[in-house]
Amino acid sequence: MREPLLKVRNLDVYYYNIRVLHRVGFEIRRGEVYALVGESGCGKTTTANAILRILPEIARIGNESSILYYKDGRDPVDLLKLPEDEFSRDIRWKEISMVFQGALNALNPTIKIKAHFLETAKAHGIRDKKEVYKRAYELLSAVKLEADRVLESYPIELSGGMKQRVLIALALFLNPKFVILDEPTTALDVLTQREILFLLKELKEKFDLTYMLITHDIALVADIADRVGIMYAGRIVEESSVEKIFYDPKHPYTIALLRSVPQIGDFKRLPEGIPGEPADFRKLPPGCPFHPRCPEATEICRQKVPPLIDLGDRKIACHLYAKEKVS
Ligand SMILES: Nc1ncnc2c1ncn2[C@@H]1O[C@H](COP(=O)(O)OP(=O)(O)O)[C@@H](O)[C@H]1O
Ligand SMILES: [Mg+2]
After folding, report:
1. For residue 324, what pLDDT band results from cuts at 50, 70 and 90?
2. Which pLDDT score, from 0 to 100, does residue 275 have?
3. Domain 1-95+176-272's class?
4. Ligand 1, from 16, 24, 42, 183: best to mutate by most atoms within 8 Å of Cβ?
5. Cα of 270 vs its chain's centroid, Å
6. Ligand 1 center to residue 160 CA distance, Å?
């Protein structure tokens, strides 16, 4: 088994007094693609922002949470305990980088792409323009753009797919080991989505990267993920290899997510939406947060939150399987 790179444990996050993440825990191994999947609003971006320590001021992380990072395979450091100056000098962007959700329109429209690279470099104390352009050229070529032309372009002159490639190149500027991709293809058409996924796979090999790929679209991760964590209402509810998740899903929520994917060529079976509303953190129901939408719910599901248990081939938080384990 590959060595660990990141271990998130008991991650609790509150916005004001509303608890959004509940004991979120998972491990990511060096060189793998870990997909974090769940409906919009379930806490994926919050998880990513906690790792990169860019949560807003109003957010609070629980005292029992830890995020262990194995830099260069050495003894892990708890990212939550590092002083901010150390974290920003050694970790943020240099070790762990992120392609932000919805960032396509965050590129400054008034400056050329080359100026975006200069700004990124300046923020990290690199002022040698020649060096910056050389690296920008390398990276833009690596993301399969015509580097000379793109460096001289304004964001408005680029298509959505090209802008996403630029954002990926910017995220790689300081040579990070671990890249969080937050909905990296959501705003793009289906063909461009495929191209970006293909590119991400290629970059991973070329630069020896590890990814956390965040998406609400489970279909997207089939070809790229090694392992998948399914999140519901701020909790990991099932986690396993990509094969188990797609071919032998067990949690009723995972099954519902897969049913909501359109099947190519199957015109008779329309994708089914998941009944009911996504969980509202301000008024989570007692018991399993998925029970109001769950076709399998029984009395215990309305009363007790199912713990995340290890079945050997997967982790799952569902009373259907908790019972199996006891008997
Ligand atoms: N800055 C914030 N202040 C208050 N609530 C927030 C903030 N950011 C996110 N939330 C809430 O936290 C929950 C999880 O959000 P988020 O992590 O963005 O979910 P996802 O990325 O899975 O769509 C949502 O209910 C959202 O409204
Ligand atoms: Mg998000």
Report:
1. low
2. 85
3. alpha beta
4. 42
5. 28
6. 25
Structure tokens at 234: 């701020």
Residues counted in the chain: 327
pLDDT reading at 252 higher than 90: yes
Distances in Å between the Cα of 164 and the Cα atoms of 6, 138, 224, 235, 262 are: 26, 16, 18, 29, 25
H/E segment holding residue 254: helix 252-259
Residue 64 Cα distances to 9, 78, 202, 234, 237, angstroms: 8, 12, 37, 16, 20
Q: Which ligand 1 atom minimizes the distance to the CA of 101? A: 21
Ligand nearest to the CA of 184: 2
Taking the C-alpha atoms of residue 292 and residue 252, their distance in angstroms, rounded to an integer, is: 12
Other Cβ atoms less than 10 A from the Cβ of 127: the count is 10
Most ligand 1 atoms within 8 A of CB, residue of 46, 57, 58, 280 to mutate:
46
Instruction: Write down the pTM of the prediction.
Output: 0.95
* Distance (Å) from CA 234 to ligand 1 centroid: 10
For 280-320, the pLDDT digits (tens) are 999 999 999 999 999 999 999 999 999 999 999 999 999 99
Give the pair of three-digit tokens for residue 209.
Answer: 């990267």
The two three-digit tokens of residue 245, written as one number: 């998740």
From the CA of 41, the nearest ligand is 1
Q: Which ligand is nearest to the CA of 20?
A: 1
CB distance 72 to 263 below 8 Å? no
Evaluate: CB of 118 within 6 angstroms of ligand 1.
Answer: no
How confident is the model over 171-185, as a mean pLDDT? 97
Contact 301, 287 (CB under 8 A): yes
Could you state, in order of their start, the residue ranges of all structural domains in the chain?
1-95+176-272, 107-175
- The distance in angstroms from the start CA to the end CA of the chain is 31
Two tokens, residue 285: 């129901």
Residue 1 confidence class, pLDDT cut points 50, 70, 90 = low
